[in-house]
Amino acid sequence: MDPKDMKERMKLPRQIMSEQAPHERVRNFFEVPLGFTEEQAVIEAKRCIQCKNPLCVGGCPVNVDIPWFIRLIADGKFEEAARKLKETNALPAVCGRVCPQEDQCEKVCIVGKKGAPVSIGRLERFAADYERERGTVSIPEIPKTTGKKAAVVGGGPAGLTVAGDLVKKGHKVTVFEALHTPGGVLVYGIPEFRLPKKIVKAEVEYLKRMGVEIVVNAVVGKLETVDELLANGFDAVFVGTGAGLPVFMNIPGENLCGVYSANEYLTRLNLMRAYQFPEVDTPVLRAKKGRRHRRGQHGNGRGSHGAAPLS
Ligand SMILES: Cc1cc2nc3c(=O)[nH]c(=O)nc-3n(C[C@H](O)[C@H](O)[C@H](O)COP(=O)(O)OP(=O)(O)OC[C@H]3O[C@@H](n4cnc5c(N)ncnc54)[C@H](O)[C@@H]3O)c2cc1C
Ligand code: SF4
Fold this sequence. Notes:
Blueprint: H1 3-11, E1 18-19, H2 22-25, E2 33-35, H3 38-46, H4 55-59, H5 66-74, H6 78-86, H7 92-98, H8 120-133, E3 149-153, H9 157-168, E4 172-176, H10 185-188, H11 197-210, E5 213-215, H12 226-231, E6 236-239, H13 262-271, H14 288-295
Parallel strand pairs: 3-4, 3-6, 4-5
Antiparallel strand pairs: 1-2
Helix pairs in contact: 3-5, 3-8, 5-6, 5-8, 6-8, 7-8
């Protein structure tokens, strides 16, 4: 890149992604950030100076070719950018939203040495959303089958990522997920306003279209053990069961009805939609303090126990 062009790029301001206004977002559970427009994405992409030794790539756990996908956005080739991302990342719309980029790729971005780093995560989100919203998601060519079968235990981001990588190498992959829906913490932990379920669903669909088989309501260990999976035709097993088991503090009262571990509380609300009880089967007990606040004139209707309605 010629030095004059580089200087001009360094002068471009970091683009601000619009989001729901505070007075609106306190009344709903929809996603708060709204994403870049095409114009914003192109300007933001032009802030990348296309380093010869891109430190950002080293900062990315899945080694996305960051300058390449950003250059495609700068050239207006949004769908190509999404395809580039998916060469090494099966979940770009998820990662573009919830990856801690500020501690990874963006932390080491060279542009950040003198100002704000390039918004790599937001650009990733933009490209993945652009492709999905236009229904132009294409499936990469899958190599001839190797004849090998892999079982993946757990359909969280770890299991889904492994499944995507293995299927792209020509192996047959079956994911066994204990819950009724894949996604792990992405669906039962991270709330809708931060990561909408439809985004996770779309990326799971992409994996299925690539040939990943997903079996839900399948608790490995109860149905089949890992040894049995290996004895029954699988050549390898990846265990990605997460860290869902709560650690209790052993304090009096923690076993009382209505005291939840964080994961149970989140699962009831995010996955089982307990905020719609009794229309749905799963309840969540509400704190008295929360109710008092709701009836009062002050406060935002959410008790300090966080158990007031979420919709
Ligand atoms: C509330 C919350 C918010 C978070 N927010 C962020 C964020 O914004 N950004 C970020 O980077 N990280 C975030 N994290 C952390 C992130 O979600 C985890 O690091 C990530 O989900 C771990 O992925 P995993 O696939 O290893 O495990 P999990 O997501 O826990 O998935 C494991 C899966 O295995 C299944 N399973 C367990 N046992 C079995 C079995 N025996 N048989 C079959 N299936 C089984 C479970 O049902 C689950 O679906 C957050 C975590 C929480 C709890
Ligand atoms: S470090 Fe920053 S400027 Fe350099 S290639 Fe990566 S995103 Fe672009």
